[in-house]
Amino acid sequence: MEKYLEKFQELIVTYAPKAIMAIIIYIVGSYIISLLLRATKKVMIKREVDVTLQKFLINLLNWTLKILLIITVIAKLGVETTSFAAILASAGLAVGLALQGSLGNFAGGVLIMLFKPFKVGDLIQAQGETGVVKEIEIFTTKLTGLSNREIIIPNGSLSNGNIINFSSEGTRRVDLVFGVSYDADIKQTKEVLMNVLTSHPKVLKDPAPTVNVLELADSSVNFAVRPWCKTEDYWGVYFDVTENTKLALDKAGIEIPYPHSVEIQKEG
Protein backbone atom coordinates (compact mmCIF):
# COMPACT_ATOMS: atom_id res chain seq x y z
CA MET A 1 0.00 0.00 0.00
CA GLU A 2 2.82 2.37 0.93
CA LYS A 3 4.45 1.59 -2.39
CA TYR A 4 1.35 2.73 -4.28
CA LEU A 5 1.08 5.87 -2.16
CA GLU A 6 4.68 6.75 -2.93
CA LYS A 7 4.03 6.17 -6.63
CA PHE A 8 0.94 8.39 -6.46
CA GLN A 9 2.89 11.15 -4.70
CA GLU A 10 5.60 10.95 -7.35
CA LEU A 11 3.01 11.31 -10.09
CA ILE A 12 1.48 14.32 -8.35
CA VAL A 13 4.88 15.96 -7.89
CA THR A 14 5.79 15.24 -11.52
CA TYR A 15 2.54 16.14 -13.28
CA ALA A 16 0.76 18.62 -10.96
CA PRO A 17 2.89 21.61 -12.08
CA LYS A 18 2.34 20.65 -15.72
CA ALA A 19 -1.42 20.27 -15.20
CA ILE A 20 -1.64 23.62 -13.39
CA MET A 21 0.38 25.32 -16.10
CA ALA A 22 -1.78 23.68 -18.81
CA ILE A 23 -4.93 25.01 -17.12
CA ILE A 24 -3.42 28.48 -16.85
CA ILE A 25 -2.40 28.38 -20.52
CA TYR A 26 -5.93 27.32 -21.51
CA ILE A 27 -7.60 30.10 -19.49
CA VAL A 28 -5.18 32.80 -20.62
CA GLY A 29 -5.22 31.50 -24.20
CA SER A 30 -9.04 31.54 -24.31
CA TYR A 31 -9.04 35.12 -23.04
CA ILE A 32 -6.45 36.17 -25.64
CA ILE A 33 -8.45 34.47 -28.40
CA SER A 34 -11.59 36.40 -27.41
CA LEU A 35 -9.57 39.65 -27.47
CA LEU A 36 -8.13 38.82 -30.89
CA LEU A 37 -11.57 37.99 -32.27
CA ARG A 38 -13.04 41.27 -31.00
CA ALA A 39 -10.07 43.24 -32.34
CA THR A 40 -10.31 41.52 -35.72
CA LYS A 41 -14.03 42.24 -35.92
CA LYS A 42 -13.45 45.93 -35.13
CA VAL A 43 -10.78 46.17 -37.84
CA MET A 44 -13.07 44.54 -40.41
CA ILE A 45 -15.96 46.83 -39.47
CA LYS A 46 -13.67 49.87 -39.70
CA ARG A 47 -12.48 48.78 -43.15
CA GLU A 48 -16.09 48.06 -44.19
CA VAL A 49 -15.51 44.39 -44.95
CA ASP A 50 -18.66 42.67 -46.19
CA VAL A 51 -20.80 41.43 -43.26
CA THR A 52 -21.04 37.96 -44.79
CA LEU A 53 -17.24 37.68 -45.04
CA GLN A 54 -16.80 39.09 -41.52
CA LYS A 55 -18.82 36.32 -39.86
CA PHE A 56 -17.23 33.58 -41.93
CA LEU A 57 -13.66 34.73 -41.20
CA ILE A 58 -14.39 35.22 -37.49
CA ASN A 59 -15.72 31.65 -37.28
CA LEU A 60 -12.74 30.29 -39.18
CA LEU A 61 -10.25 32.22 -37.03
CA ASN A 62 -12.01 31.10 -33.85
CA TRP A 63 -11.80 27.41 -34.77
CA THR A 64 -8.17 27.67 -35.91
CA LEU A 65 -6.96 29.44 -32.75
CA LYS A 66 -8.84 27.02 -30.47
CA ILE A 67 -7.27 24.01 -32.19
CA LEU A 68 -3.81 25.56 -31.79
CA LEU A 69 -4.57 26.28 -28.13
CA ILE A 70 -5.62 22.69 -27.47
CA ILE A 71 -2.44 21.38 -29.13
CA THR A 72 -0.37 23.73 -26.95
CA VAL A 73 -2.14 22.55 -23.78
CA ILE A 74 -1.61 18.89 -24.72
CA ALA A 75 2.07 19.58 -25.37
CA LYS A 76 2.38 21.25 -21.96
CA LEU A 77 0.97 18.15 -20.30
CA GLY A 78 3.98 16.24 -21.58
CA VAL A 79 2.68 14.74 -24.78
CA GLU A 80 5.29 15.35 -27.46
CA THR A 81 3.89 17.33 -30.36
CA THR A 82 5.77 15.10 -32.80
CA SER A 83 4.05 12.04 -31.32
CA PHE A 84 0.77 13.90 -31.32
CA ALA A 85 1.24 14.81 -34.99
CA ALA A 86 2.04 11.17 -35.80
CA ILE A 87 -1.14 10.05 -34.06
CA LEU A 88 -3.15 12.62 -36.00
CA ALA A 89 -1.53 11.54 -39.27
CA SER A 90 -2.24 7.85 -38.65
CA ALA A 91 -5.83 8.64 -37.73
CA GLY A 92 -6.21 11.08 -40.63
CA LEU A 93 -7.80 8.62 -43.03
CA ALA A 94 -10.37 7.42 -40.51
CA VAL A 95 -11.18 10.96 -39.43
CA GLY A 96 -11.40 12.08 -43.05
CA LEU A 97 -13.86 9.31 -43.88
CA ALA A 98 -15.91 10.04 -40.77
CA LEU A 99 -15.99 13.76 -41.50
CA GLN A 100 -16.60 13.59 -45.25
CA GLY A 101 -19.86 15.50 -44.88
CA SER A 102 -18.30 18.15 -42.65
CA LEU A 103 -15.33 18.62 -44.99
CA GLY A 104 -17.73 18.93 -47.90
CA ASN A 105 -19.70 21.54 -45.97
CA PHE A 106 -16.51 23.45 -45.19
CA ALA A 107 -15.53 23.41 -48.86
CA GLY A 108 -19.05 24.54 -49.72
CA GLY A 109 -18.72 27.46 -47.31
CA VAL A 110 -15.45 28.49 -48.97
CA LEU A 111 -17.10 28.32 -52.41
CA ILE A 112 -20.00 30.47 -51.20
CA MET A 113 -17.55 33.08 -49.90
CA LEU A 114 -15.55 33.02 -53.15
CA PHE A 115 -18.41 33.22 -55.66
CA LYS A 116 -20.90 35.10 -53.43
CA PRO A 117 -24.22 33.84 -54.86
CA PHE A 118 -25.86 35.62 -51.92
CA LYS A 119 -24.98 37.67 -48.86
CA VAL A 120 -26.40 38.23 -45.38
CA GLY A 121 -29.78 39.93 -45.68
CA ASP A 122 -30.67 38.47 -49.10
CA LEU A 123 -33.94 36.62 -49.66
CA ILE A 124 -33.12 33.29 -51.30
CA GLN A 125 -34.74 30.00 -52.24
CA ALA A 126 -32.59 26.88 -51.98
CA GLN A 127 -32.96 23.21 -51.06
CA GLY A 128 -36.74 23.61 -51.00
CA GLU A 129 -36.59 26.41 -48.43
CA THR A 130 -37.17 30.16 -48.72
CA GLY A 131 -35.83 32.70 -46.25
CA VAL A 132 -33.60 35.67 -45.52
CA VAL A 133 -29.90 34.83 -45.04
CA LYS A 134 -29.14 35.35 -41.36
CA GLU A 135 -25.60 34.01 -41.09
CA ILE A 136 -23.06 32.08 -43.18
CA GLU A 137 -20.99 29.87 -40.89
CA ILE A 138 -18.13 27.48 -41.65
CA PHE A 139 -20.32 24.42 -42.13
CA THR A 140 -23.87 25.74 -42.41
CA THR A 141 -25.91 28.73 -43.55
CA LYS A 142 -28.78 30.01 -41.39
CA LEU A 143 -31.94 31.47 -42.90
CA THR A 144 -34.88 33.17 -41.25
CA GLY A 145 -37.98 31.69 -42.87
CA LEU A 146 -41.01 33.68 -43.97
CA SER A 147 -42.87 32.57 -40.82
CA ASN A 148 -39.85 33.51 -38.64
CA ARG A 149 -38.49 29.95 -38.53
CA GLU A 150 -34.76 29.38 -38.30
CA ILE A 151 -33.64 27.24 -41.24
CA ILE A 152 -30.18 25.63 -41.18
CA ILE A 153 -28.83 24.33 -44.50
CA PRO A 154 -25.47 22.50 -44.87
CA ASN A 155 -23.09 24.51 -47.05
CA GLY A 156 -22.14 21.46 -49.11
CA SER A 157 -25.64 20.82 -50.47
CA LEU A 158 -26.31 24.57 -50.66
CA SER A 159 -23.27 25.27 -52.86
CA ASN A 160 -24.02 22.30 -55.15
CA GLY A 161 -27.74 22.99 -55.59
CA ASN A 162 -29.87 25.57 -57.36
CA ILE A 163 -30.12 28.95 -55.64
CA ILE A 164 -32.68 31.63 -56.45
CA ASN A 165 -31.66 35.04 -55.11
CA PHE A 166 -34.67 37.37 -54.99
CA SER A 167 -32.63 40.29 -53.62
CA SER A 168 -29.73 40.51 -56.06
CA GLU A 169 -31.60 42.66 -58.61
CA GLY A 170 -33.32 44.86 -56.01
CA THR A 171 -36.75 44.56 -57.67
CA ARG A 172 -39.30 41.79 -58.19
CA ARG A 173 -42.23 41.26 -60.51
CA VAL A 174 -45.51 40.25 -58.89
CA ASP A 175 -47.27 37.70 -61.11
CA LEU A 176 -51.06 37.74 -60.65
CA VAL A 177 -53.92 36.29 -62.69
CA PHE A 178 -57.52 37.56 -62.53
CA GLY A 179 -60.46 36.10 -64.42
CA VAL A 180 -63.56 38.02 -65.53
CA SER A 181 -66.78 37.08 -67.25
CA TYR A 182 -66.95 36.65 -71.04
CA ASP A 183 -69.59 39.39 -70.99
CA ALA A 184 -67.05 41.93 -69.67
CA ASP A 185 -65.55 44.49 -72.00
CA ILE A 186 -61.84 43.67 -72.44
CA LYS A 187 -60.74 47.27 -72.92
CA GLN A 188 -62.64 48.47 -69.83
CA THR A 189 -61.31 45.59 -67.75
CA LYS A 190 -57.72 46.38 -68.75
CA GLU A 191 -58.22 50.03 -67.79
CA VAL A 192 -59.66 49.10 -64.38
CA LEU A 193 -56.80 46.70 -63.67
CA MET A 194 -54.16 49.19 -64.83
CA ASN A 195 -55.67 51.93 -62.62
CA VAL A 196 -55.30 49.60 -59.62
CA LEU A 197 -51.60 49.21 -60.39
CA THR A 198 -50.76 52.83 -61.20
CA SER A 199 -52.55 54.10 -58.09
CA HIS A 200 -50.54 51.92 -55.71
CA PRO A 201 -47.65 53.93 -54.17
CA LYS A 202 -45.26 50.98 -54.07
CA VAL A 203 -45.75 49.78 -57.64
CA LEU A 204 -42.78 50.99 -59.68
CA LYS A 205 -43.21 53.13 -62.78
CA ASP A 206 -40.00 51.69 -64.25
CA PRO A 207 -40.24 48.87 -65.18
CA ALA A 208 -43.83 49.74 -66.06
CA PRO A 209 -46.66 47.43 -64.94
CA THR A 210 -48.48 45.44 -67.62
CA VAL A 211 -51.98 44.00 -68.06
CA ASN A 212 -52.59 41.48 -70.85
CA VAL A 213 -55.13 38.85 -71.81
CA LEU A 214 -53.54 35.58 -70.71
CA GLU A 215 -56.02 32.96 -71.88
CA LEU A 216 -59.62 32.27 -72.81
CA ALA A 217 -60.47 29.76 -70.11
CA ASP A 218 -63.56 27.56 -69.79
CA SER A 219 -65.63 30.07 -67.83
CA SER A 220 -63.54 33.25 -67.76
CA VAL A 221 -61.22 35.55 -69.65
CA ASN A 222 -58.00 35.53 -67.64
CA PHE A 223 -55.75 38.57 -67.42
CA ALA A 224 -52.03 38.49 -66.54
CA VAL A 225 -51.38 41.39 -64.15
CA ARG A 226 -47.67 42.15 -63.71
CA PRO A 227 -46.65 45.02 -61.39
CA TRP A 228 -43.01 45.57 -60.35
CA CYS A 229 -41.87 46.60 -56.88
CA LYS A 230 -38.87 46.65 -54.58
CA THR A 231 -37.98 43.26 -53.17
CA GLU A 232 -38.93 44.21 -49.61
CA ASP A 233 -42.38 45.43 -50.78
CA TYR A 234 -43.30 42.20 -52.60
CA TRP A 235 -45.89 40.76 -50.22
CA GLY A 236 -47.44 44.13 -49.43
CA VAL A 237 -47.99 44.80 -53.15
CA TYR A 238 -49.21 41.23 -53.73
CA PHE A 239 -51.92 41.43 -51.07
CA ASP A 240 -52.92 45.04 -51.76
CA VAL A 241 -53.30 44.56 -55.51
CA THR A 242 -55.34 41.37 -54.99
CA GLU A 243 -57.74 43.12 -52.62
CA ASN A 244 -57.94 46.39 -54.58
CA THR A 245 -58.61 44.51 -57.83
CA LYS A 246 -61.66 42.80 -56.35
CA LEU A 247 -63.01 46.11 -55.05
CA ALA A 248 -62.32 47.91 -58.36
CA LEU A 249 -63.97 45.21 -60.49
CA ASP A 250 -67.02 45.17 -58.24
CA LYS A 251 -67.28 48.97 -58.45
CA ALA A 252 -67.08 48.85 -62.28
CA GLY A 253 -69.75 46.13 -62.43
CA ILE A 254 -67.35 43.60 -63.92
CA GLU A 255 -68.21 40.07 -62.83
CA ILE A 256 -65.58 37.67 -61.49
CA PRO A 257 -67.01 34.24 -62.40
CA TYR A 258 -66.82 31.30 -60.04
CA PRO A 259 -66.94 27.59 -60.88
CA HIS A 260 -70.38 26.18 -61.56
CA SER A 261 -71.33 22.57 -61.11
CA VAL A 262 -74.15 20.90 -62.99
CA GLU A 263 -75.93 17.93 -61.46
CA ILE A 264 -77.26 15.39 -63.94
CA GLN A 265 -79.85 12.91 -62.74
CA LYS A 266 -80.64 9.86 -64.77
CA GLU A 267 -84.22 8.65 -64.55
CA GLY A 268 -84.58 4.99 -63.87
Describe the structure.
With 268 residues, this protein is an alpha+beta fold. The protein contains 8 helices and 10 strands. The chain has helices at residues 2-46, 51-76, 81-90, 92-98, 100-115, 155-160, 186-198, 234-251; strands spanning 123-126, 129-136, 140-145, 150-154, 163-165, 171-173, 176-180, 210-216, 221-226, 228-230. The strands form 3 sheets. Strands 4-3-2-1-5 form a 5-stranded antiparallel β-sheet. Strands 7-9-8 form a 3-stranded antiparallel β-sheet, with helices on one face. Strands 6-10 form a two-stranded antiparallel ribbon. The longest helix is centred in the N-terminal third of the chain and has 45 residues, at 2-46.
- Structural class given helices, strands, pairing? alpha+beta
- Name the overall outline: elongated
Number of strands: 10
Rg, please? 32 Å
Q: Helix fraction?
A: 40-55%
Provide the β-strand percentage band.
Answer: 15-25%
Q: On the 0-100 scale, what is the average pLDDT?
A: 83
Q: Report the biggest beta sheet as strand number plus sense, adding barrel if it closes.
A: 5 strands, antiparallel
Oligomeric state of this protein: single chain
Task: Summarize the entry for a quick read.
By secondary structure, the chain is of the alpha+beta class. The chain is 53% helix and 19% strand.
Primary descriptors:
five-stranded antiparallel β-sheet, three-stranded antiparallel β-sheet, 53% helix
Question: What's the structural blueprint in terms of helices and strands?
Answer:
Blueprint (H helix, E strand, L loop, with lengths): L1 H45 L4 H26 L4 H10 L1 H7 L1 H16 L7 E4 L2 E8 L3 E6 L4 E5 H6 L2 E3 L5 E3 L2 E5 L5 H13 L11 E7 L4 E6 L1 E3 L3 H18 L17
Antiparallel strand pairs: 1-2, 1-5, 2-3, 3-4, 6-10, 7-9, 8-9
Helix pairs in contact: 1-2, 7-8
